[in-house]
Amino acid sequence: MEGESLRGRLLIAGPGLFDPNFRRTALLIGEHNDEGAVGVVLNRPTPASVEEVVPPLADVVGRDERLFIGGPVQPQSAVLLAQFDHPDSADLLVFDSIGFLMGEVEEEAVRGVRRARVFAGYAGWGAGQLEAELEQDSWIVEPALPEDVFTDEPEQLWSSVLRRKGGRFAMLALMPFDPSMN
């Protein structure tokens, strides 16, 4: 995996990852290169709607769509992840026709959005940091599917991806949040 970009892959938190920002998370990597990596946590919806927190983006994602916690970096910033009719509409294409719109969202870019989610903040790693975490088995890598990004059951994403991966990973999906409660 050395030197290979993880853009468009899911990082599934491994059983030994106890950092509360990432415990039992499914994270989509948006960019990964020699300088580091960035992504968003896909399975941490908040009770707040996008309309309540980021009203200008409510028309893009839908009035009742929930805001998601994307990660601990810049939690006051809105990050928009979308599926586009034309992939070249994305400012940063992640995989297939799914990518990010950055900065001010232009009305023209919004016209080609099929579906979208808004995240508060993102996850980031410096040069070599993600690679070190992968060597420590902190993360399980899996190709991302569009239905992972826009699942109707985001709270179940961690365990559903582990079950899909199969084998010993399917067993991990059954692990309780607090193993001492087992």
Commentary on this structure:
It is built from seven helices and ten strands. It is globular, with a radius of gyration of 16 Å. 21% of the residues lie in helices and 37% in strands. By secondary structure, the chain is α+β, with helices and mostly antiparallel strands. The protein has helices spanning 50-53, 58-61, 107-111, 129-135, 146-149, 157-165, 168-172, and strands at residues 9-13, 26-33, 36-41, 45-49, 66-69, 73-84, 92-95, 98-101, 113-126, 139-143. A hairpin with a 2-residue loop joins β7 and β8 (98-101).
Describe the oligomeric state of these chains in a short phrase. single chain
Helix-and-strand structural type: alpha+beta
Give the biggest beta sheet: 10 strands, mixed
Element order: H for helix, E for strand: EEEEHHEEEEHEHEHHH
H/I helix tally: 7
Rg from Cα = 16 Å
Determine the strand fraction and express it as a percent band.
35-45%
| Dominant shape | globular
* Number of beta-strand segments: 10
Keywords:
182 residues; alpha+beta; 10-stranded mixed β-sheet; 21% helix; globular
Topology:
Layout: E1 9-13, E2 26-33, E3 36-41, E4 45-49, H1 50-53, H2 58-61, E5 66-69, E6 73-84, E7 92-95, E8 98-101, H3 107-111, E9 113-126, H4 129-135, E10 139-143, H5 146-149, H6 157-165, H7 168-172
Parallel strand pairs: 5-9
Antiparallel strand pairs: 1-2, 1-10, 2-3, 3-9, 4-5, 6-8, 6-9, 7-8
